[in-house]
Specification:
Blueprint (H helix, E strand, L loop, with lengths): L1 H13 L5 H8 L3 H13 L20 E9 L8 H8 L4 E6 L6 E7 L2 H12 L5 E8 L5 E2 L2 E2 L14
Antiparallel strand pairs: 1-3, 1-4, 2-3, 5-6
Helix pairs in contact: 2-3
Pfam family, one: AsnC_trans_reg
InterPro entries: Dimeric_a/b-barrel, Tscrpt_reg_AsnC-like, Tscrpt_reg_AsnC/Lrp_C, WH-like_DNA-bd_sf, WH_DNA-bd_sf
GO molecular function: sequence-specific DNA binding
């Protein structure tokens, strides 16, 4: 079953809206087995959620993403976990990662305007007692997100072959 689970996960990671019958055929299994495996992996929190990727630039909606690098003083016994948990609780925060390099965490913020995101960083993130520094980068354009290319690709043109 482990190989089946791995194949299900690899496929769902790219195509979360797949029909279970189609997935079963692709994997050489039956729909009930695939559905049971997915359900078991959801209960075990192996599958943590499903996402819809939206190109907000095409909707006319104001929407800003920012990547905030954060320096943190780790705490005895909990390291970075307590600070990360606090940051995760803000609704503006869509992701928090422990990273290597000059900064300790990468925080992905979503907001309506640059000012809204900047205000979040200055009024909520920076004042956290363990945070010793931040660096903000605004996402200006997405070329690829979650494995999906976000702009039109050139179509391969075939040359007309005549006898």
């Amino acid at each position: 079953m482990e190989e089946l689970r791995k194949q299900i996960l690899l496929y769902l990671e790219k195509h979360s809206r797949v029909d279970l019958g189609e997935l079963a055929v692709l994997l050489g299994s039956d729909e009930v087995t695939v559905a049971n495996e997915i359900s078991a992996m959801e209960r075990a929190k192996i599958i943590c959620g499903y996402h819809t990727l939206i190109d907000w630039d095409k909707t006319g909606t104001e929407y800003v993403n920012a990547l905030i690098e954060v320096k943190v003083t780790p705490q005895r016994d909990t390291g970075f976990d307590k600070t990360a948990e606090r940051i995760c609780n803000y609704p503006e925060v869509s992701a928090v990662y422990l990273i290597s390099g000059d900064f300790d965490m990468m925080v992905l913020i979503e907001g309506k305007t640059l000012q809204e995101v900047s205000k979040f960083v200055s009024s909520k993130l920076s004042p956290i007692e363990d945070v010793t520094g931040t660096s903000t980068q605004f996402v200006l354009k997405k070329y690829k997100d979650h494995g999906t290319i976000m702009f039109g690709q050139k179509k391969t043109e075939r040359m007309l072959v005549t006898p």
